[in-house]
Amino acid sequence: MSENATNEMTDLRDDLERDEDTLAFEDVAFDEIEEIDEDAADDLYSPDVLAGNPQDLVQKVQQLEERNQQLMRVAADFDNYRRRQEREREDLVNFAGQKIIESLLPVLDNFERALQAEVKPEDVANFVEGTRMIQKQFIDILQRAGVTLMDTVGTPFDPAFHEAIAVEDSDEHPDQTVLAEFQKGYLLNGRLVRPAIVKVSNAG
Fold it and tell me: Beta strand 186-188 with 191-194: parallel, antiparallel or unpaired?
């Protein structure tokens, strides 16, 4: 994995851990406030308070109202926090590919310039070389993003990474050896993105 990709994954993991810590704090805070309200209600309806000074009853009611207001404020703050986190997560999903797209746009620009150029017969070799340079630029960007090309020809056939569309009898290769590749396969940080389409041997 590239350093930039590693840093981005680390930042994302840290954000998720902070979210989990915050959610855990929310649960504790709500539990504590609910316990305060239950205790206040028990105090309000206790025989001592009901049989005592009416002013004490009024004071208990005021305390209960204050704690109820506190609970409502905390609940509103946490609701706003949850909504903000939801928006941020949606943005992360919707715009997760923005950096890689920004990196690929110069490649597209170079292709457009190449296609707009008038290529004379004597310039074909230079045109091909320029196209190869653009291809290398594209591959370098993919590699920095963690994409790797699978090396398949001559390796044992693996259905987890290869898709066989042809079989050829061969006495020169072990059975189920990849003889040819029709379409390249790619991995992203070790995870399969696209299997390689191959031809395999049949040793008979």
Answer: antiparallel
- For the cut 80, the answer to whether the pLDDT of residue 10 exceeds it is no
The DSSP secondary structure of 58-113, one letter per residue, reads HHHHHHHHHHHHHHHHHHHHHHHHHHHHHHHHHHHHHTTTHHHHHHHHHHHHHHHH
Question: What are the b/e assignments for 69-78, b being 16+ CB within 10 Å?
Answer: eebeeeeeeb
> How are beta strands 178-183 and 196-202 bridged, if at all?
antiparallel
Residue 174 near residue 156, CB atoms below 8 Å = yes
> Are 85 and 23 part of one and the same domain?
yes
Alpha-carbon gap, residue 158 to 156, rounded angstroms = 6
Q: What is the pTM of this model?
A: 0.56
> Is the pLDDT reported for residue 106 higher than 70?
yes
Nearest Cα neighbor of 144 from 114, 104, 115, 108 is 104
Q: Which domain holds residue 110?
A: 99-145
Q: What pLDDT, on the 0 to 100 scale, is given for residue 180?
A: 96
Residue 187, pLDDT score: 96
Q: Do 45 and 112 share a domain, yes or no?
A: no
- Per-residue pLDDT tens over the stretch 148-160: 999 999 999 999 9
